[in-house]
Every structure is written in C-alpha cells, then in structure tokens.
Amino acid sequence: QVQLVESGGGLVEAGGSLRLSCRASGRTFSSYSMGWFRQAPGKERESVATITWTGGSTSYGDSVKGRFTISRDKSKNTVYLQMNSLKPEDTAVYYCAGRLFGSSWSDWGPGTQVTVSS
C-alpha cells in the first residue's frame, strides 16, 4: 500500500557513523508510524527504532538507545536513522517499515546493508 525504499547503507569502521534514509510514497501519513528493523545472518529480526508521523514520538531498542536517533521529514515523506558509535554487532540488513495505527508492520522496504568492521 505504501512503497518504501531505504538508502545510505555501507561499510564503516567501528566507532563511526552512518545515516540511513527511507523514502515513502504518498502524501498523507496521518495515524501512520514508521520504524527501522534489522536482521543479521542467523538472527531474528530486531526492532531498532520507531516514530509516529503526527507527534514524532520515538522509541528505541535497548541495544541502540543512546547511539541511534530516528527522525522524519514530513515534507519529504522520509524517515532517517542516524547511527553513531557503531559497533560490529550493528552489522545487519536494515529495513524500513510502516504501519497504520492498530495494524501490524505491513509496509516494508527491500533493505540496505550496514557493515561495521572491527
């Protein structure tokens, strides 16, 4: 229903930073939330951060709290994930997702690879 495309992934050294972007199609995002998830090989998908479009309320997974910041630009239909102090364990494919209030995460981007070297 909503198309999402991530960008900004790449290779970075431990302690470095990356900013991921997720561009969403459409013009109205009332009652909509977006989030970042990640999945490493052999691991379960993990919630990284979420944000509501109306109020900008955010939440973070414990493993990234204090290091990552999620934000959104409503005029650009884009959500960002600023990742600082990256660790090798942050290495994963990062996915952007969206949902309407009261629904499951139903809109997904194709993912972008983030690799953090030691």
* Helix and strand run: EEEEEEEEEEE
Unreliable residue runs: none
Count, helices: 0
The assigned structural class equals mainly beta
Query: In which range does the helix fraction lie?
Result: under 10%
Number of strands: 11
Shape: globular
Average pLDDT over all residues:
94
Strand residues, percent: over 45%
Radius of gyration over alpha carbons?
13 Å
> What profile does the largest beta sheet have?
7 strands, mixed
How far is it from the N-terminal to the C-terminal residue, by CA? 39 Å
What does this structure look like?
The protein is about 0% helix and about 55% strand. The chain has strands at about 5, 10-15, 20-25, 30-40, 45-50, 60, 70-75, 80-85, 90-100, 105-110, 110-115. The strands form 2 sheets. Strands 2, 4, 5, 6, 9, 10 and 11 form a 7-stranded mixed sheet that branches. A 4-stranded antiparallel sheet has the order 1-3-8-7, with no helix packed on it. The protein is globular, with a radius of gyration of 13 Å.
Topology:
Elements: E1 4-7, E2 10-13, E3 18-24, E4 32-39, E5 46-52, E6 58-60, E7 68-73, E8 78-83, E9 92-100, E10 107-108, E11 112-117
Parallel strand pairs: 2-11
Antiparallel strand pairs: 1-3, 3-8, 4-5, 4-9, 5-6, 7-8, 9-10, 9-11
